[in-house]
Amino acid sequence: MTLLNAPPTFNWTPATLTDLPTVGEPIRSLDRDVEGGPGARLRAAREAGLRFRSEFATSGVPASVVTCDLVTLPYPTRFGLFRATKALAPFLSITNRMLVIRWNDSDGRPRVLLFEPSDVELGRKTPYFAELLRRTPKPVAEMVTTIHGTVLGHLTRLGIRPEEVDYILFDHLHTQDLRRWIGTTAFQDDLGKHTEAIFPNAKVIVQRDELLGMANLHPLQTPWYQPAAYRDVPLEAFLPIDGSVLLGPGVAIIKTPGHVFGNQSLVLNTSTGIWVSSENVIAAECLTPEHSRLPGLASWSRSWQQEVILNANTIETTADQYNSIILEKTIADRAQADPRFLQFFPSSELTPLWTNPGTSPTFRHFAITHSA
User: Fold this and answer.
1) Are 146 and 72 in contact (CB under 8 A)?
2) Share of the chain above pLDDT 70, in %
3) Which of 196, 209, 315 is nearest to 262 (CA)?
């Protein structure tokens, strides 16, 4: 794993991205350009979240939301629970999940969105995880990693053909290799073939900031991205957006910078109220740490007067990530199963494992399930 700044591996520039189409209806209530420092931006985030909550609740609901487990894997405790944890275990476990969202546009056209459809096999080539695997004995790696299913296997079970997928969305592109999903323009040595798109009609919705940042990574970013995997993907497969957009009835993407510069979160209006999903935190209790039984979280939150616990494997702009989590916290409804916690669904959710003492979550969502 190199920590040096890698040279650009593809020619994405503001000019080339400007020529691409975009998608969605801009959400003006979430515009947060304010004068002043991070404290002023924090206050603006709370105010914007309250405005957006009331209007989004009237936007309708999608036809269905289904949750699909992909993989449970180890993750450094000091990253996932930032400085708050007192757990002795160096690693905790997180479960990556895909959401499949369906709705009909105003003209009746059916839409399918895949949120976090990670190619788990190719994701292992991420520099950080590749180095971790190299240093971990295979029996140990197999013991702490569980494959629950594949993207294509879940879609087959749901009766969704690959060509029916309209949109692919990630909160950010850490670890993601999209070559099999959107195809390549040249032969791929490591795959041994020229890859045709498995999802031929799908477009990847991504913040323009992140696409530009990936073309010239900072050393803080290099362990977590696979820039070479984007060298030969077709640029026209991307739909860059600038900020927050309403994508369909009860389906929105909001810009939540901080974890990465171009971070974004999925917001859903469902039969149980409003949900927010991202990897800004790894457990619902990280938004209300005063109710957490995880060692250290409640006391750290009180001592430092910080009301959220960041997922901090990258701290590109930590204050902005904090503010983005407050925005998410302001928007999400209370959980019906336990109102102490919010309907925040971590795209990678903290999962108990006997090898990781002190990291068993107080509360888990497991899934978002909705049918109109």
Assistant:
1) yes
2) 97
3) 209
